[in-house]
Amino acid sequence: MKRLEVVGKSFTFTDDIDPQYKSLSFQVQVLRGQYNYVRAEFFLEGQELANFLAGDRDYEKLAEEKMRWILELNTTPVDAYMLETMQREQREILGSVEETKAAAIEAASAVADDTKNLAVAAATDVASAAVEEAKVQAVQAATQVADAQTAMLRTAMRKFVRIDELQPEDIADLVGLYDPWIADEAVAVGDIRSYDGKLYKVVQAHTTQADWTPDATPTLWTEIAPPETEDGEEIVPDFVQPTGAHDAYKTGDKVLFEGKIYESTIDANTWSPSDYPEGWKEVTD
User: Is it true that domain 163-229 has CATH number 2.10.10.20?
Assistant: First the structure.
């Protein structure tokens, strides 16, 4: 692990009259490479806080243990407390899935046993067909429940992902968490859909059409991408003509226009560098 730093810490107390430690939070950052930081915030409460106060570990040792645990999991840089909550929800959901599968298997076995008994009393061929049908129905029921639980898990995971902090390869790994773009769907501003291996966010509410794919309609969709490449180089997007205040450029926004990089010098900038040069300055660095 490269340089680790505790950048902040604070205690909360039960009340002002008889103050007792209630919780401890501390923020940590680790430099893993040039321009590549992993940041996390940890909360200690209850027995874990009591063990820390009674022990001989300092903040740096505790932070190193927590960060090693996170980095060994190769997780994205989400808040550690949120990560623990997400993992707890995942365990609960997965446990529910396993229970449902076990119940479905048990039900399938019971149905199969009953069907076999009927087969002895009736016709073997008819009974065999009933057994197969029962198995098919049981598998279908288990699959439907598992699919529903998987959708719940995907929704829970999306709540804790900070897309604007991720690297390109991390965003590619998250594409499967989001629903794919489809035609004839009403979408609202801020909705995220996957299309052609990329993630796009809605900037203008509309009903999708087959010829309005996210990559072809920048006035309706914007691609979610990190501000820097893996090598730390700034990513400057191509200039896209704004259609209103919702997608206008702000002061400091940079664009690539006719082979040059320009920076907006005003807010609510809806003009191109050639249409309104006073609203832009060329970046030569």
Answer: yes
Quick one: CA torsion of 231, 232, 238, 243, rounded to 10 degrees? 140
Rounded CA separation 131/192 (Å): 44
DSSP strand E in 61-190: where? Answer: 186-187
Long-range contacts of 271-279 (CB under 8 A, 24+ apart): 272/239, 272/241, 273/239
Which strand (E) or helix (H) includes residue 76?
none
The full DSSP string for 92-126 is HHHHHHHHHHHHHHHHHHHHHHHHHHHHHHS-HHH
> Which amino acid would we find at residue 85?
T
The rounded distance, in Å, linking the Cα atoms of 217 and 202 is: 10
Residues 271, 241: contact at Cβ < 8 Å? no
Q: Count Cα neighbours of 33 within 13 Å in the Cβ-side half-sphere.
A: 6
The top-level CATH class assigned to 236-285 is mainly beta
Domain ranges of the chain: 4-72, 80-159, 163-229, 236-285
Distance CA 248, CA 117 (A): 73
What are the tokens at 232? 């730390």
Read off the pLDDT of residues 35-91 as tens digits, 9 standing for 90 and up.
Answer: 666 777 777 788 888 888 887 677 777 777 777 766 664 444 445 555 566 666 767
pTM of this structure: 0.33
- DSSP, collapsed to helix, strand or coil, labels residue 42 as strand
Give the amino acid at 277: P
Matching CATH topology for 163-229 and 236-285? yes
For residue 134, count other CB atoms closer than 10 A to its CB. 19
Q: What is the pLDDT of residues 119-155, one digit of tens each?
A: 666 666 665 677 788 788 877 877 776 666 556 555 5
As to burial, measured by CB atoms within 10 angstroms (0-12 exposed, 13-18 middle, 19+ buried), residue 28 is buried
